Amino acid sequence: MLLNSYNFIFFFFILFLCYYLLGKTSKLQNLFLLLGSYIFYMTWSGEFLSLLLLSTLGTYFVGNKIKLSVGRRKVYWLRLGVFLILIQLLYFKYFNFFIENFNDFLKAFKFQSQIGLLNIFLPIGISFYSFRMLGYLLDINNNKLKEIPSLLDYSVFIAFFPCIIAGPIDKASPFLNNLKTKRNFSSQQFSDGLKQILWGLFKKLVIAENIATITEPLFGTYQTLNGSALFVGAILYFIQLYSDFSGYSDMAIGISKLLGIKIQTNFNYPLFAQNVADYWRRWHISLTSWLTEYVFTPLSIRFRDYDKYGLIMAIIINFLVVGFWHGAEWHYIMHGLVSGLMFIPLILKGKMNKKIKSSNSILPTISEVKNILVTFVMFSLLMVLFFVKDMNMAIGYYKGIFSSSFFHLPNFKLQKEIGILILFMIIIEWISRDKEYAIKELFNQRSIILRWGFYYILVFLVFLFYIAPKGFIYAQF
Predict the structure, then answer these.
(1) How far apart are CA 113 and CA 103, in angstroms?
(2) Is 162 left (phi over 0), alpha (psi -120 to 50) or beta?
(3) Which of 154, 262, 348, 474 is 20 to 30 A from 172, comparing alpha carbons?
(4) Which residues contact 86 (CB under 8 A, 6 or more apart)?
(5) How far, in Å, CA of 207 to CA of 349, rounded?
């Protein structure tokens, strides 16, 4: 059941009515949320609901033990909890990857391996809810979570339906604080949530889905295209991925607002990033902040005696985890490795933590244009490693881009309508780049006719360019 489907509208309408009309207390509201979340999950991956339930119960039990233990026993329970979470990730997501590479290693030395691959199906959302569980246990261990929540509240935190498929990956404490008191209906909150959902629908259905009609056949026939066409394809895919993933995040955040629950912002206009560090502060914020706290920071402390070289090691390991989190394929791992290596010039210059000041004017400065274009092109090229099927395709695609045919006109057609829509989205986001989402306060100071006219235009475009919705790209992770 996709967030942008008619089935979801019906499901959410029923849940919304029960939540506010029958949820007389916070406990009843949380119970409706949990039941709704499990029903939602069953429409995606019903056969793995038992795994989600067992993981929730197991980590809740271990969390209690960590809280009540001291010394070595506390360390023991933490390690057990981390092991239980990682072992299921390793089995479902990475087992065949290790076996396949082990077999290839043996073949390189003329040995025949008898280990066969297993027919394993990946439980939907396992990477997202596993990181929620890990963060919860680590926060208890580090005394960042002062009290143990009820099993009901913890279960809602793990299975919350707007986030379980593709995030954001919330921290336990701020999310659980939402659940302590009864949520009351607010028309302002309702309006805010609907606007963010509308912008998310526009990005997903109008921008991402229509770009996909170009990129999917382009990637399927990339050997026949010249370098400039492949370069344009990489740029289009970067915009498609952003529109698809940030569109989902906007919908998830907007739906949560309708329920009176605040979840973490996941994107901060990454298309306008001005260097590598700036980009990763804006892209998939919940994942990068999670890894910064639980992976990069401990590593940087451990390697601090090595000065800048220690920082480089910590960054590269951190981004290898980012790549491996996305999937058990070498092109994802290479994506993470290259992302880490891209930080080296900033680290050596001592500029990694230096935040860039952006101008508040409508038109960007010359310096901003240069920095944004360079960063945009770099990450468009990097995303080649994201959409390819394997490293052979990546090598072939890069060879095609960096060939003499790069200087020829692209030998494929780009519909003008899609180009205009992309430009429209970018302009709206640039104008509102200091806001939580692009249309949050757009035209608030203008007449109600202009404001509502703009919303009707967005709704019209959603229906005009509507294509039967496909799954979200990040749901596969």
Answers:
(1) 6
(2) alpha
(3) 474
(4) 130
(5) 38
- The sign one gets for the Cα dihedral 205, 371, 379, 308 is negative
Return d(Cα 181, Cα 25) in angstroms, integer: 8
Q: Compute the half-sphere exposure of residue 45: CA atoms within 13 Å on the CB side of its CA.
A: 20
Query: What tokens does 170 get?
Result: 């919330």
The residue with tokens 């906007």 is 250
Between CA 78 and CA 272 the distance in angstroms is 40
Count of residues making up the chain: 477
Per-residue model confidence as pLDDT tens digits over 210-225: 999 899 999 989 999 9
The string of pLDDT tens digits covering residues 321-369 is 999 999 889 999 999 999 999 999 999 888 887 777 777 788 888 989 9
d(CA 157, CA 378): 36
Residue-wise burial string across 332-344, b where 16 or more C-beta atoms lie within 10 A, e elsewhere: bbbbbbbbbebbb
Question: DSSP for 187-208?
Answer: HHHHHHHHHHHHHHHIIIIIII
Other beta carbons within 10 Å of 148: 16
Instruction: Indicate the SS3 state at residue 95.
Output: helix
Decide if 412 contacts 353 (C-beta within 8 A).
no
Q: Whole-model pTM?
A: 0.93
**What pLDDT, on the 0 to 100 scale, is given for residue 280?**
95
Model confidence pLDDT, tens digit, residues 49-89:
999 999 999 999 999 999 999 889 999 999 999 999 999 99
Q: Which residues of 390-410 are buried (b: 16+ CB within 10 A; e: fewer)?
A: eeebbeebbebbeeebeeeeb
C-alpha torsion sign, points 213, 3, 288, 95: negative
CA distances from 444 to 73, 268, 407, 441, 452 (A): 56, 21, 45, 5, 10
Query: What are the backbone angles phi and psi of residue 182, rounded to the nearest 5°?
Result: -65, 135
Cα distances (Å, whole numbers) of residue 132 to 42, 58, 65, 211: 19, 14, 18, 32
Query: Nearest to residue 396, comparing CAs of 324, 476, 331, 319?
Result: 331
Q: Are 61 and 77 in contact (CB under 8 A)?
A: no
Q: How many CA atoms lie within 13 A of 476 on its CB side?
A: 13
- Residues 336, 97: Cα–Cα separation, whole Å: 17
Distance of CA 126 to the CA centre of its chain: 13
